[in-house]
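Homework help thread (please don't just give me the answer)

Our assignment gives two proteins as sequence + structure token strings and asks us to describe the second one. The first is just a warm-up. Here they are:
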Amino acid sequence: MSTEISAQSQAASYTEQARPRRPFGRVVKNYVALTKPRVMELLLVVTVPAMILAERGLPDLWLVLATLIGGAMSAGSAGAFNCYIDREADRLMKRTKNRPLVTGEISDRNALVFAWVLGVISIVWLYATTNWLAAVLGAAAIFTYVVVYTMWLKGRSEQNIIWGGIAGCFPVLIGWAAVTGSLGWPAWVFFLIIFLWTPAHYWPLSMRYREDYAAAGVPMLGVVRGRATVGLQVILYTWATVASSLLLIPAPGIGWLYTAVALLSGGYFILQAHRLYGSAIRGQEGKPMQVFHGSITYLSVLSLAIAIDPLLPF
């Protein structure tokens, strides 16, 4: 019996030695990929402008850095949970075939542990370096993205991205709360802008990757509805986004720069949405990815204007 155990131990040891060790940089790169860094970047883009508007000037740089670190960890935790929960669906989609859990670069168990640890650290970090409200909002963002969107709505409703997209609005509230310890009405308007922007941003992507989502059984609007219906919805949410952006004009610290940018960039965003719809009603595919990338540019430019306006001397 002892001889058999010894042989098994030696075999396991040999297998472990024979297995190629991945370079440390490659391991780090794969864990970073779990956090969905592109989504994280977009979320952090709106955090700093919210903090500047709340302060009506430049906040303490350490507070900004601490908030960004906490927000990045919170978003990264949500992304890692999403990759873990969606790992089977990701194996069926071309768009996600290179994610670490699909390729086997990271084990399911390690990904889940990583998501939990990063999430807990993010909440503790925000509480220790900012305040309790920012920490609670960070926890709420993770819960909304993981439970409400990924586990509940994503596989069940064509409206999934509308309500699940609320998670992407939390960085604005976290940034505002970190500065003021409360939530003023401009923060909620900024929240509303991102809430309405999310479907107009994401549904063109669902049009482009319709076959992918269908193969994975995800009822995105682009899967269950025709192009014309999706295009019309994109138009409606684009108009609503631009209209809501004008509600921020009376906010203290907002001036002519933001007003001009909101009107000009909003007009361009609306034009792109109408072009997509025009192609759809003619039975053409159009350029949904142009609208997708254009929506990112729109939100980035709008956020930049929010950040700059309170710093202007006039």
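The one we have to describe:
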Amino acid sequence: MLGPVILAASRSDRMRRLVTAAPVTRQVVDRFIPGETVDDVVPIVVDLTSKGLELTMDVVGEDITTPEQATAARDAYLLLIERLGELGLGEKVEVSVKLSMFGQALEGGHDLALRNVRRVVEAADAIGTTVTLDAEDHTTLDSMLAIHADLRRDFPKTGCVLQAYLFRTESDARRLAASGSRVRLVKGAYKEPAEVAHQQKHEIDKAYVRILRVLMNGDCYPMVGSHDPRLISIAQELAHRAHRKPDEYEFQMLYGIRSEEHLRLAAEGHRMRVYTAYGTDWYGYFMRRLAEKPANLRFFARSTLTKH
């Protein structure tokens, strides 16, 4: 399987240099990452929201090695939220954050990340929007969930992400569903050992459906993070069986993938949120998008072969 190979490459400095230096890379990256600055993405945000879509914004970047870099990452989010407030888009656009960007892996990183993300959550709340804590590899999960619980005491709409391929996720989903949390469920995009995660696609898909059923039947707000037509259909059926209204759950897909499906779901009255990333440190995000789906890798390969 190519996915684990690509995920390993996402951690390689040599591969980073090769991929980022390739002449066609920027052109392909633009499919998934529409800009490097807030000014670059504001027109995208305005355009997508005008079409009935909602967004969650992610400032890409993961290799944080100093507290100063963590502070800079926090400030990048504060700038984004300021601009969203100026545009009056608090009800349409939320933000997604990776705690690793806020210093989670540094010495004393849990507390540092909590301080940094709390500033972002406070700013988001002030303009009427929310923050979702993205999932990273399994070693960071307990810290993320603890920070999520801490933030929800003051900001109960703070969301988090669960990854279906982890064995522990069904148990985590039952607890979060009972607490009324906002939960985005994804399949998972990190290279995890067989001791903690399913490795086969059919096992991951079955786990996804089991966990999604828990969320739909619970008191939480499920966010269905998938591009898989079969899982989207199952999600609609589970929502119907749970007697959920259209505003009591939502679909989420990545910018640049199945864009026509985004519009179709929105036109049918579903809440459809587009995960839109921007920034200069895009390499890790880009490689995970390639690893998640063979079609993404084929798209990159075709572009590489046809451009000179």
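TA reply:
I won't write it for you, but here's a hint about the kind of observation we're looking for: Confidence is low (pLDDT under 50) at residues 303-308.
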